[in-house]
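Example 9 (inverse folding). The structure is encoded as follows.
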């Protein structure tokens, strides 16, 4: 049960990290065009 909880938290953290890196322009180069979706209007 403890291992499942740790894996769940790690997966949530990795997804959150991907979202943060994407919104910040993807400095690692994994994201697409930097901040294009934020200035669509």
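The amino acid assigned to each position is listed next.
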């Amino acid at each position: 049960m403890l291992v499942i909880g740790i894996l769940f938290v790690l997966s949530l953290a990795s997804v959150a990290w991907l979202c943060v890196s994407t919104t910040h322009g993807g400095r690692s180069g994994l994201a697409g065009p930097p901040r294009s979706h934020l200035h669509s209007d």
